[in-house]
Amino acid sequence: MSQDSGTSARQPTGLDIAMQWAELPAEHMKIALDALEPQLRREHEMRVLQQKAEHKLAQEQVRAQEASAKRAHSLYLSGLIAGFVVSVGMLSGAVVVGVNDQPWLAAMLSGPSVLALTTLFVLRRNEQGQAQAVAAAQRSALNAAQQPPAP
What is the pTM of this model? Predict the structure, then answer.
């Protein structure tokens, strides 16, 4: 016992007990091993249960990561679809109002605003320079529409 002072604070394992009984005669050793067998079984069952719990926890983490990846993928696809619908709708609207003699409205629908909205839906980011370009394009389209036509 004096050679392993760290084992006194914890419960001795089967190997610790076997080491203590190793110096005894064979009959005593057989009795000690017979007494140790239930302890070894309990320790084995405890380790098996711990490994099962760790495996179950790892599986739950993998499932959570897969669910998160699936949500991110569906969000990305919905952004692509929304961007496509918005850009096609704006371009179609630009053609319709352009045919109906409203070129300034067609310019607003088919200009940088299409790019800005498509970038917003597809890439999920809004750049300051792009927003300023959209505002400038809309101002210039409105200014051009308010000027009287040349005689």
Answer: 0.53
